[in-house]
Every structure is written in structure tokens, then in C-alpha cells.
Request: fold
Amino acid sequence: MDLVLKRHDTTDAYKEDLLQHIVDTAPEVLPLAEIDRGFVGARSICRELPFSLDLQRAKRLDNLLITPDGGIVLVECKLIRNNEAKIAVVSQLLGYLTDISKWRYSDLEQAVKAVRAEMKCEDSSLYELANAGSVGLDEIEFSEIVDLNLRRGRMLALIVGDGVSDRVQDIAEFLSGKATTPFTLGLVKLDIFRMPGNDDSGYLVLPQVQVRTQVYEIPVRVLQGGIVAEITNTENDKTALSPQKIRATTSEQGILDALKASAPDHVDAVSNFISDCKNLGCEIKSSPKSFSICAIDPLGNPWNLARFHFNGKVLVDSLAAQDRAAGTDIGKSYQYAVAALIPGGRVKTTPKTPNWATVVNANGGDLQIADMMAIKERWLDLIAATAEAIRSVGLGDGSLAQ
Reply:
């Protein structure tokens, strides 16, 4: 029997609220990997983010998403047949980018808590909502990265609609030659079809990227008596930073310099280890106090295989969230395999947080760089096998070959 789907009516029941609802409840429908893979895995934080605590009068952003590693995504939902769905929505987003770049982490968290309380949502921290623990960041590191992205205005701005016409694609002309903070812009069309049945049968949503990643510099110049902003298109500027590089606040040389104090005898070994991991297809992600070795799955999601702190300790933490999402045991197998490489090593868990686990040494303490460099070659073999399994998630049986 043929299944006939009806495009959802854009003139009556279909409102911008539905677009917001879809982005909020199913952010994975947004084709972020096609726009910029640095924002893949963004989690829904809230709808109607207020830009002041006067909730009755505040300007509001439709949807806020944040990735586990601190990438910020601002979303405005517009119906294209709405007269505002042209330059106005871009101007609106630029205003929000300017406003939010004046905030600190505490300001953002306060605004999120206020609107979630208003909407009677569960009271959770930004760290919890973004699931930052899944990529090995502690709350302090996560807040520092979000802080940095806020201050520098380095974010993804998305316009989501039921169609992006020439009127909206005129934004390139609108933006070229003007300027304030670096941001990435994406335009996404969502074709929405009502599933057969009653009103609760749900929707089939087909996303399409209409304008791909463009990076704009928006340096803000403060003058006596006011602020002057200009916008410069830096899409083809070789100095423009990707979101990964933006959030990687420490260069590779900076990583090695930071390790000289805590592990001076192992700097060369760590340098070679980083190069070997990159040759295996892994990515190096940095934060102000650490760097991580990440394998990337076919959807662009990072799997954190190890986090090196600049104080000399190394964390091999749980990948339970990634295993659960992919339907595999790759992360769990990897953790236990790492523990088996270390004399007396084991995987430490706690009943209070069943999804948390970390590899510890024979004394039950944190792993140190010296511990890991002593098993470097065997560890690299394990990383190679694990990274290959992660790259095959969804393509094979989802298991880690031993």
C-alpha cells in the first residue's frame, strides 16, 4: 500500500511555534554536519532565551543549543511567507549575537534558569544540559570555554524556516562590506509533512541546507559616545578560524610548553604521541587547562579517548553516552582495554553515578603522563583499532575488534 504524506499547512495551524518545538525536542534534525561539523551534537538548552531578567519585556531568542564541548548555537525560526523573513531576521540575529557576546557564563546560566523556571522545566545547570561530561570536560573547563566563545562572539547562527527564498539568500549582499564578532551563519529549510492518522501521529521532517557555512568577522569598535559596528565576510580568509580551532584555545606548541612544568621528561614523547594520533585520524581538542584525543564517528560526534591535563594527569573517562547513542559497547571495551595495559590498572565506577567511570592506576589514583607514555606503543595500537570502530559506527556490527 502506498503511503501518501500531506505537506503541513503553512497558512493555518503551522506556525513558527512548531519550528521552535521541533528544534527544541529534536535538535538532531538540524543538518549541522553539513554546515559545520564543529557544532554537531548540540543539545537543546531552552526556548525563548530572554536577554534580560525582565521576562515580560525582554527580547527573546527562539532556541539556544550548546554542544558538549561548549559550542554555542543561536536559532531563529521564521516562516518564509512572513514579511520579516528577509533582512529583518538577519538583523535580529546580529543584534542577538552582539547582546550575548557581552555576557559571561554566569549571565547565560542565569537567563537559562529564569526561562526554564518560567516554562516549568527541570532545574539543571548548563553543564548538565549540554552533557559536557560526555566529552571529558569538568564544569570549570566547560564554563571557561563557553565564556571564551561568548566574549569572542564565536558562535553558529541559524535561520530555520519552511523554505529559504531568494529574499533570504540576499543576506550575502546585506552582510558583505559591513562588521563586529566572528560567527558562522547557516540557513536551513525544514520540509514538514503530517504523518497519516490523527493529530498525534507526528511529523516527517526533511531538512535541507540552503546556505552553507560562512564565517563573518564582526569586530566591535567602541568610540566616544557610542559603538560603531562593521561586518566583513571572511569565508575565504585563510586566517578565519573554524569552531574547532576557536574552542581549541591552546596551540600544539602551547600544549607542549604547558607540559614542561609538570612532565618535562615526557614532552617529546607526548609531541610524538599527538602526531601519531593525528595520523590515525584523531582530532586534538584543547581547553584552557587540558587537551583531548578524539575519534570522530560518521555523524561528526567526538569520542574522547583521553584527556591530558597540563598538571600531568591523564583521564580516560566513560563513553557511556556515546555507546548508548550509537548502540555499541566500543567505549566500554576501550576503557577496560586501557586499564588492562596498565600494571594494576582498573576501571573505577560509583553506584551514585552509574554512567560515570574512569581508569585508575594500581593505587586507585589518577593516571599520570608517565604511566601512559610507558605503554605508548600498545596504547596507540588500541587507539587505532578503537578509532576505526568508531568511524564504522552504523556501518557494521558496532563492536570493537579485539
Remarks:
- The radius of gyration is 23 Å.
- The CA atoms of residues 70 and 146 lie 5 Å apart.
- The first helix runs from residue 16 to 25.
